[in-house]
């Protein structure tokens, strides 16, 4: 069996930054066990598997340890492969996830805009001590979205320099923990930790911005916001809130392409 595979740096306009993702282009679905084994072998935060349909592409995402409901940067990487490498002729690609529904990706010059469902947040007052144990500082507020906890911190420097306790974060009943604050040169900054999902710190997390965008839109009164994820690799995102949908934009660059060989 031969599988075409690409590795793409997403949410960046240059190599060796942003968030690397693998994209496997399939003719039909593989077993979940095989897809999980491939993702573990790739050892990247996410591997996307894409199967073409009549008018859309089916998509699934795996970390090295488990399948996730939604992944922004691997969807961006998949759209980049289809638009820039496989010469998909339309302006918009329709992806379908069996968990997250319809997801669109539109090419606008160098940028790809992801169209994702917006998250719904609830303020949580019972987890402040647990979150402090995770990050070593008192959060200004704690929220819970569909998959993650979100801690709002005092300023950008606190987000940048905090030293998380990954063992404590791994105890949280969630995919992971987002920490965020108002930015100095952008509207907001963030970092994302998910050791319980096999990712100690994710370089750039598109799906986290489906939670961050409604939070910071309410705080700033703006629908269009700029964002920076303060990982070592770093990543820049352009975001827009449109009713119950999030537009999350970024660029991508190809790192490598090849062929995966597998024999039963």
Straight-line N-to-C gap:
8 Å
Mean pLDDT: 95
How many β-strand stretches? 18
Shape: globular
List SSEs in N-to-C order. Answer: EEHEEEHEEEEHEEHHEEEHEEEE
Structural domains: how many: 2
Strand count, sense and barrel status of the largest sheet are: 18 strands, mixed
* Tally of helical segments: 6
Helix content: 10-25%
CATH topology of the largest domain: Diaminopimelate Epimerase, Chain A, domain 1
Q: In angstroms, what is the radius of gyration?
A: 18 Å
Q: In the CATH hierarchy, what is the class of the largest domain?
A: Alpha Beta
Low-confidence sequence ranges: none
Briefly note the structural class of the backbone.
alpha+beta
What percentage of amino acids are in beta strands? 35-45%
Within CATH, the superfamily of the largest domain carries the name Diaminopimelate Epimerase, Chain A, domain 1
What is the annotated CATH architecture of the largest domain? Roll
């Amino acid at each position: 069996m031969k599988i075409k595979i690409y590795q793409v740096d997403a949410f960046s306009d240059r190599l060796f930054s942003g968030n690397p993702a693998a994209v496997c282009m399939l003719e039909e679905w593989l077993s979940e066990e095989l897809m999980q084994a491939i993702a573990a072998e790739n050892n990247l935060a996410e591997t996307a598997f894409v199967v073409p349909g009549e008018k859309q592409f089916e998509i699934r995402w795996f970390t090295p340890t488990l399948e996730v409901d939604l992944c922004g940067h691997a969807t961006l990487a998949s759209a980049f492969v289809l638009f820039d490498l496989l010469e998909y002729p339309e302006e918009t690609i329709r992806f379908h996830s069996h968990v997250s529904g319809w997801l669109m990706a539109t090419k606008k010059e160098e940028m790809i805009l992801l169209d994702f469902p917006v998250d719904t947040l609830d303020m949580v007052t019972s987890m402040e001590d647990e979150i402090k144990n995770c990050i070593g500082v008192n959060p200004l507020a704690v929220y819970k979205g569909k998959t993650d906890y979100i801690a709002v911190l005092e300023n950008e420097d606190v987000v940048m320099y905090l030293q998380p306790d990954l063992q404590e974060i791994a105890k949280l009943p969630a995919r992971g923990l987002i920490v965020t604050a108002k930015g100095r040169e952008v509207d907001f900054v963030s970092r994302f930790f998910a050791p319980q999902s096999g990712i100690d710190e994710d370089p750039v997390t598109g799906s986290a911005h489906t939670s961050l965008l409604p939070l910071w839109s309410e705080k700033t009164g703006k629908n269009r916001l700029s964002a920076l994820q303060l990982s070592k690799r770093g990543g820049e995102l352009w975001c827009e809130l449109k009713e119950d949908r999030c537009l999350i934009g970024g660029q991508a660059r190809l790192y490598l392409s090849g062929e995966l060989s597998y024999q039963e």
